[in-house]
Amino acid sequence: DTAVSQTPKYLVTQMGNDKSIKCEQNLGHDTMYWYKQDSKKFLKIMFSYNNKELIINETVPNRFSPKSPDKAHLNLHINSLELGDSAVYFCASSQRLGTRSYEQYFGPGTRLTVT
Amino acid sequence: AQSVSQHNHHVILSEAASLELGCNYSYGGTVNLFWYVQYPGQHLQLLLKYFSGDPLVKGIKGFEAEFIKSKFSFNLRKPSVQWSDTAEYFCAVNADRGSTLGRLYFGRGTQLTVWP
Questions:
Q1: What percentage of residues in chain B have a pLDDT greater than 70?
Q2: For residues B3 and B81, what is the distance between their CA atoms, to the nearest angstrom?
Q3: Interface test with B, best of A53, A100, A111 (most B CBs within 10 A)
Q4: Residue B110, Ramachandran bin (φ over 0: left; ψ between -120 and 50: alpha; else beta)
Q5: A17: distance to nearest CA of chain B, Å?
Q6: Are A106 and B94 in contact (CB < 8 Å)?
């Protein structure tokens, strides 16, 4: 049973294209996240949704648009891909209880290569 | 803003050697602390976590970490490493409350290489 799954695992595309990455979690968590890991392995949060509501929106180009159709799914759509978008994108989920946020569980990552 | 520093970029050890990876954070409030491990080509897995209580926490695979509040540190330790511990290790922090709730701040990672 995969707790947090992402598709696709690898994505190779050309500059200017539009692509989407999908994420699903079966942990029953109410909060989901997108992180970007650059070539030096630095991880930075991009977005977070809690119960389908956007709660974290870091300084990310507006070519990136997250969508959460329900608590268990968080998708990331990227328009007009650029070379600098090449990275590994990780989805994660966690549970909030009142005002406390618990540990995050990560998906396997999507390696995006823009040529 | 919160920040996390991992002092060692790359650590190389022989099997059975002891390990200590440093992690310091900057944040004035109450924090939750985590160590994650990323094996080559894999996703991040939670090694251990600290929310409150005993500052010495034990995680999976024989790892432990000690939270020293006065030093803003959360160092990771293992008494005897194995070749299979070769991986990238990330320290992470999030605020226990407040407007940055849930936002995990990661250190830049420490690559551990263990020679058999």
A1: 93
A2: 28
A3: A100
A4: beta
A5: 26
A6: no
Contact B43 A55 (CB under 8 A): no
Q: Return the structure tokens found at A15.
A: 């500059």
Pairing relationship of beta strands B56-58 and B44-50 according to DSSP bridges: unpaired
Contact list in A for residue B43 (CB cut-off 8 A) is 4, 90, 106-109
> Count of CB contacts below 8 A, A vs B?
55
Q: What share of chain A is helix, strand, coil (3-state, %, to 5)?
A: 5, 60, 40
pLDDT tens, N- to C-terminus, chain A (115 residues) = 669 999 999 999 999 999 999 999 999 999 999 999 999 889 999 999 988 888 888 888 999 999 999 999 999 999 999 999 999 999 999 987 766 667 899 999 999 999 9
Q: Do A108 and B42 touch (CB under 8 A)?
A: yes
Sequence letter at residue B26: S
Q: Indicate the pairing of strand A10-13 with strand A110-114.
A: parallel
Q: Which residues contact A61 (CB under 8 A, 6 or more apart)?
A: none
